[in-house]
Design goal:
Layout lengths: L4 E2 L2 H11 L5 H12 L3 E4 L7 H6 L4 E5 L2 H13 L5 E5 L11 E6 L10 H14 E12 L3 H7 L7 E7 L6 E11 L4 E11 L5 E12 L3 H10 L2 E6 L13 E8 L1
Parallel strand pairs: 2-3, 2-5, 3-4, 5-6
Antiparallel strand pairs: 1-10, 6-12, 7-8, 8-9, 9-10, 11-12
This protein binds S-adenosylmethionine.
Amino acid sequence: MEANFSYPAEYYDEDYTIGVPDRGDIPFYREYALKQGSPILELACGTGRILVPIAQSGIECYGLDFNREMLAICETKARALNLKNIHLQFASMDNFHYDQKFSLIYIPFRSFQHLLTNEEQIRCLHLVREHLKDDGRFLLDVFAPNIDRLASYGKKGEGWEKEFSRKNEQTESTITRYFQARADLAAQIISVVMKWEERNSSGELVAKKEGNFRLRYIFRYELEHLLVRSGFTPALFGHFDERPYDYISGETVAVCAKS
Ligand SMILES: C[S@@+](CC[C@H](N)C(=O)[O-])C[C@H]1O[C@@H](n2cnc3c(N)ncnc32)[C@H](O)[C@@H]1O
């Protein structure tokens, strides 16, 4: 399958630590990793935003991703921290193999939504089940689709929306991220296009980057059906603090055992 995610990898970590508010997901995934014990597997691990802090807790960590630039950043971080317990693989979430089973498998930060068809979703969930120990746990988070936003994404003609500005820690210039989103309401797919403009202290444009991805949005009961159909017993929550699902928080967090 074709990778459905393009992002300037060198911007990713600082975008999600300085640019946008803390998601609060790292402690959630790390606590489950500590509770379940080694080995653990993150699908779509990217730059290791979550995998690296878990590896620093001494857990044997496996990660896969379909983007070589993101994986290279994860590798560089592991090397800089002298972490020998991170094992990375270039593979797709719906087509991977390991010769071992895991105590914990998780797909954080809505990455499961990059699988756009029922077939891809089911293939991925079957592989997760196959690679999970009988007493293992499977975790994932997706966004709770916001009906008002979807309605506006369904209309044509909206321009660029500014998301955030942040300092580039290395060059002292300012990076601003803009986005545009369109929704195919029948296919439940949101297409996001992003651009980054980096300006020096005189306001001159010194770098311009682009990225894009598509996300299949998944409603709460749809997720529950999908997980049950794939052999899991899920508990659904409204945030990483495991509050009841409330729609308002914007998050759907699933904690699954094998059924
Ligand atoms: C929002 S990032 C999340 C990265 C990391 N898990 C985190 O929490 O920061 C989404 C990641 O999903 C990866 N991805 C998208 N489709 C994929 C697929 N089919 N198989 C593996 N990785 C995929 C992208 O390459 C990207 O690294």
